Amino acid sequence: MASSSSILLFAALLALVSWQATASDPSPLQDFCVADLHSPVRVNGFVCKNPMEVNADDFFKAANLDKPRVTNKVGSNVTLINVMQIAGLNTLGISIARIDYAPLGQNPPHTHPRATEILTVLEGTLYVGFVTSNQPAPNRNKFLSKMLNKGDVFVFPVGLIHFQFNPNPHQPAIAIAALSSQNPGAITIANAVFGSDPPISYDVLAKAFQVEKNTIDYLQAQFWENNHN
Ligand SMILES: *[C@@H]1O[C@H](CO)[C@@H](O)[C@H](O)[C@H]1NC(C)=O
List the disulfide bonds (predicted). Predict the structure, then answer.
C-alpha cells in the first residue's frame, strides 16, 4: 500500500514538475543572469554575462513605448520588448509589449507557447477573446470574449488562441501587455497554417478545414504573400 501510494505521489509530482517546465520559464538561481548574446554555449535561454560587468543599461531600453507605431495589413503593430532587447530579462520570466491598433484594426488570432499575457487598454476600446483547448462537450473550444474600455485589464492564459480587435472605425487604440516569459513566442494561426514555408500540402488543409482545394489555394496565396514578401 505504502509503496503504491508513494509511486502515485511520485507520478503526480513528476507530472507537476514537467508541466511547470513546459508551461513557464524556470525560476532564476541567482539575482540576475544578464544574457551574453554572443556566447557560443547553447543552454535553455542564454548563459550569464560576468556579473562584475553588469550595469544598469543591461536592464534598460529606450524603447519609445509612448510613441505610436505604423500598423500592418491587418491594422496592428506589436512592439515586444523581450530578452533580445533587454539582456537583463534572461531567466526572469517576464516581458512587455505595446500594441497599436488602427481603426477597425486587429491583432489576429495567435498563441504564445510560453506565456500568459495580461493586457491593459491605454487608449480606445478593444474587443478581446480567447478559445479554450479541446475539451469534452459541452465546453469544447469554448469562446470567452469581452469588450474592454480604457483602463480595463484582461488575461489570456498561456498557450490559448486569442485576439484583440479595435471596433472603432474612427479612433486608434493602444494597449500595453505583460507576458510571463523572457521569450513568449507567437504563433499567428492563419500565417502559420496557410503561409508556412514550404506550404502544407493542400490535400492536408482541404481535409482539415473541410473545404475545396481551390479555397485552400486562395488562402495560401494571401498568406504566402504576407509571410514571404
Ligand atoms: C511597427 O512599428 C515599427 C516602429 O515604428 C516600424 O519600424 C515597423 O515597420 C512597424 N511594422 C509594420 C508592419 O508596419
Answer: 33-48
Residues 126 and 220 in one domain: no
Other beta carbons less than 10 A from residue 87's beta carbon: 22
Same domain, 209 and 139: no
Q: Is residue 176 part of a domain?
A: yes
C-alpha torsion sign, points 168, 174, 175, 181: positive
State the pTM of this model.
0.87
Split into its structural domains, the chain has a count of: 2
Closest to 184 in 3D by CA, of 77, 76, 71, 96: 96
Does 67 contact ligand 1 (Cβ within 6 A)?
no
Residue 13 located in a structural domain: no
Q: Which domain holds residue 223?
A: 192-228
Residue 202 has pLDDT above 70, yes or no: yes
Distance 218 CA to ligand 1 centre (A): 27
Ligand 1 contact via 70 beta carbon (within 6 Å) = yes
Residue 225 has a pLDDT of: 66
Report the nearest atom of ligand 1 relative to the CA of 67.
5
